[in-house]
Write a structure and sequence with these properties.
This protein is α+β, with helices and mostly antiparallel strands. Helices cover 54% and strands 17% of the residues. It contains six helices and six strands, in the order αααααββββββα. Strands 1, 2, 3, 4, 5 and 6 form a six-stranded antiparallel beta sheet that branches. Helix 2 runs antiparallel to helix 3 and helix 3 runs antiparallel to helix 5. The radius of gyration is 16 Å and the shape is globular. The two termini are 14 Å apart.
């Protein structure tokens, strides 16, 4: 289970442009964004079996859409073809990518075995106005998994735009590699269909 969770942080794309009922909780520091998200994630894990997939997704959606800049992450995953897409295709891609990412968390983080998260309160500078926050997922056996987050300020909030497993493996790069062929061969509508299919598979426990 923990191996799947470790991989999730490298490959998930971590994440509806606006989810109905999401609370606005301004994070004044980058570390606060991570602490708030982790608090919700742990609470959902502890109640995972009781909540079921639907309950976990409902609990996680506001936290994910609050912590992650899903719109920007979608644009970065699509890459150079993004400006050539129609406004409607862009909108549907962001929505499908977000639903898929939320479903991935709800599917993978379904129980609790004593794990905990540690967040470094000091953010390291990155290019531009971005910063990196180092965190650790402490597994039930005591083994740590390093998870570094790249955040960007947006309207007095810090939003996650990428995750690095072991400090090097970019979540966005992994997704870009996974989806570039689909986008090239099937276009935006093809990628939207694939994301929806993956989301459905996760919802039924087949992801």
């Amino acid at each position: 289970m923990m191996e799947r969770r470790s991989f999730l942080f490298a490959a998930v794309a971590a994440l509806t442009v606006a989810w109905h009922g999401a609370e606005s909780r301004a994070a004044t520091t980058p570390a606060a964004t991570l602490n708030s998200f982790y608090d919700t994630l742990l609470a959902v894990m502890k109640d995972g079996p009781k909540l079921g997939f639907v309950g976990r997704r409902q609990k996680l959606a506001p936290a994910i859409t609050q912590a992650f800049d899903l719109s920007l992450m979608t644009r970065l995953v699509v890459g150079l073809p993004w400006p050539s897409l129609t406004a409607e295709d862009q909108k549907q891609l962001v929505s499908a990518f977000a639903e898929f990412s939320i479903a991935t968390y709800a599917n993978q983080f379904d129980d609790f075995s004593g794990e905990k998260f540690e967040v470094d309160p000091k953010a390291a500078p990155a290019p531009g106005s971005d910063v990196i926050v180092k965190t650790k997922l402490i597994q039930s056996n005591g083994e740590p998994v390093q998870l570094d987050y790249l955040l960007r300020p947006e309207q007095n909030e810090w939003r996650i735009i990428d995750i690095f497993l072991s400090g090097t493996i970019s979540q966005l790069a992994a997704r870009r590699s996974e989806f570039s062929g689909i986008l090239r061969e099937q276009g935006a509508r093809g990628l939207i269909a694939v994301l929806k299919k993956k989301t459905q598979a996760l919802a039924t426990g087949n992801g």
